[in-house]
TrEMBL record:
<comment type="similarity">
    <text>Belongs to the beta type-B retroviral polymerase family. HERV class-II K(HML-2) pol subfamily.</text>
</comment>
<keyword id="KW-0255">Endonuclease</keyword>
<dbReference type="InterPro" id="IPR003309">
    <property type="entry name" value="SCAN_dom"/>
</dbReference>
<dbReference type="GO" id="GO:0008233">
    <property type="term" value="F:peptidase activity"/>
</dbReference>
<dbReference type="InterPro" id="IPR000477">
    <property type="entry name" value="RT_dom"/>
</dbReference>
<keyword id="KW-0378">Hydrolase</keyword>
<dbReference type="Pfam" id="PF02023">
    <property type="entry name" value="SCAN"/>
</dbReference>
<dbReference type="InterPro" id="IPR043128">
    <property type="entry name" value="Rev_trsase/Diguanyl_cyclase"/>
</dbReference>
<keyword id="KW-0808">Transferase</keyword>
<dbReference type="InterPro" id="IPR043502">
    <property type="entry name" value="DNA/RNA_pol_sf"/>
</dbReference>
<dbReference type="Pfam" id="PF00078">
    <property type="entry name" value="RVT_1"/>
</dbReference>
<dbReference type="GO" id="GO:0003964">
    <property type="term" value="F:RNA-directed DNA polymerase activity"/>
</dbReference>
<keyword id="KW-0645">Protease</keyword>
<feature type="domain" description="Reverse transcriptase">
    <location>
        <begin position="146"/>
        <end position="298"/>
    </location>
</feature>
<keyword id="KW-0540">Nuclease</keyword>
<dbReference type="GO" id="GO:0004523">
    <property type="term" value="F:RNA-DNA hybrid ribonuclease activity"/>
</dbReference>
<protein>
    <recommendedName>
        <fullName>ribonuclease H</fullName>
        <ecNumber>3.1.26.4</ecNumber>
    </recommendedName>
</protein>
Amino acid sequence: MEELRAVNYDDIKAAVLAKYNVTEETYRLQFRSLMVLSGETLRETYNCIKGLYRRWMRPETKTKDQMRETIILEQYLRMLHPDVRVWVKENQPQTGEEAARLAERYVAAHQEPPRTNKDSTPIRQKPYRVPEKMVEKLKTEVKMMLEMGIMEPSQSEWSSPILLVPKKDGGVRFCTDFRKLNSVSCFDSYPMPRIDKLIERLGKAHYMTTLDLCKGYWQVPLEPSCRPYTAFRTSTGLYQYTVMPFGLHGAPATFQRLMDGILAGCDQYAAAYLDDVVIYSQFIVSYGKNTLNIFLTY
């Protein structure tokens, strides 16, 4: 009798979960977005996390290797570009290795041919004079950027001048004059957000968080074949950028496209204007959940 009841219970439970489309993915999302409820004790929070984990992982039906693959696969999918992630998930990979192969296939199929300059004749400009009192500051900036991997020694035929602009805090801003390079480069027409439209989206919001990304452009790596175009000359040698530098006329469009892709699917509560991100909501509960979702997912 007890055995019969157990079988019936399992059948009923499976039918209910199927009717409401409750899957392992449902529990995974709940596990990742769980928040402490008002009045909930620390022990209750722990038990809730533990219960969601067991429903997601189902350790009684999986080996340790299978659970490890599940976690690796989930983390890998979270790191993919939204477009790539959607396509990879549609193909239902079972392991991180399968997901990586699918992602490579997608990127290879959608990769655009490299854009070339309007005029491929190398531009070599004479360096600007650096005042003697700023020479040491220039050397310090070069050393710091080399250590950070922002630039590297170059053997390029191209060369743009640099200049140091004093900042209010007493430091200097390292600037590269790319005007000549920009004049022979292809323009990227990706649209920038309209400020008035962004303000309209915030109209009913009572809660907001703003994020200012640190050196946002430097988070975008340059293709090795494009690095020689960014070469610049200093008193210590010829260098080129390994990441997207400030001053390229295509940089804002490239970065805005990146941010729009990262925030895809979050346009109901988040927006970006270049490296400035705003998360907003009319209600405190959804505001906390949305903010947490941005940090966990992206």
